[in-house]
């Protein structure tokens, strides 16, 4: 059992955030000491780690609750509706990663071509590109990747 301060340090979440998650029901009401201060169990810390992980994927807090309510020994295959939701979320993340890779490829190509000078983006905006685009990237590929 750890105090709210220690739970905050272990999870990287602020004490206010920990209280908020309890208030909205994302975490069940945590135990209290005799003086009313919160103490977090290992199970609470596990759930906070899961919240952190799902939050990093862009999952809204309200969508996390069913995963947090799963019995500890349950598997996703035993809960097909949650499995389907997680697979759908996973596919959205994969699409985001592909889109970000396209943007990263674009930036890399422009940097290799020397088209990102060290000045404000409005200066020299009408400048012609320095030669043809690199083989691995061109504006047609960018359009195709983004629209697919």
Question: How would you explain this protein's 3D organization?
Answer:
Helices cover 56% and strands 5% of the residues. The longest helix is centred in the middle third of the chain and has 34 residues, at 80-113. 7% of the residues are buried. With 148 residues, the protein is mostly helical. The chain is built from six helices and three strands; from the N terminus they run βααββαααα.
* Helix share bin: 55-70%
Strand content: under 5%
Report the average pLDDT across residues.
79
First and last CA, distance:
50 Å
Helix segment count? 6
- Tell me the series of helices and strands, N- to C-terminal: EHHEEHHHH
**Broad shape:** flat
Biggest sheet statistics? 3 strands, antiparallel
The assigned structural class equals: mainly alpha
* Cα Rg: 23 Å
Q: Regions with pLDDT < 50 over 5+ consecutive residues?
A: 121-148
Domain HTH merR-type: 1-70
Organism: Paenibacillus terreus
Region (Disordered): 118-148
Protein name: MerR family transcriptional regulator
Would you summarize the structure shown here?
The chain has 6 helices and 3 strands. By secondary structure, it is mostly helical.
Pick out its properties.
3-stranded antiparallel β-sheet; single chain; MerR family transcriptional regulator; MerR_fam; DNA-binding; mainly alpha; DNA-bd_dom_put_sf; 148 residues; 6 helices; MerR-type_HTH_dom
């Amino acid at each position: 059992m750890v105090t709210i301060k220690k739970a905050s340090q272990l999870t990287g979440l602020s004490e206010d955030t920990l209280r908020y998650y309890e208030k909205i029901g994302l975490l069940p009401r945590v135990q209290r000491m005799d003086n009313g201060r919160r103490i977090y169990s290992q199970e609470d810390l596990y759930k906070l780690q899961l919240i952190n992980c799902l939050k990093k994927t862009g999952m809204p807090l309200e969508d996390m609750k069913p995963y947090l309510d799963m019995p500890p020994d349950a598997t996703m295959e035993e809960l097909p509706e949650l499995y389907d939701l997680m697979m759908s979320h996973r596919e959205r993340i994969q699409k985001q990663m592909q889109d970000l890779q396209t943007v990263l490829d674009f930036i890399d190509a422009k940097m290799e071509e020397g088209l990102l000078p060290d000045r404000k983006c409005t200066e020299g905006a009408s400048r012609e590109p320095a030669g043809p685009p690199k083989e691995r990237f061109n504006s047609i590929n960018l359009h195709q990747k983004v629209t697919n």
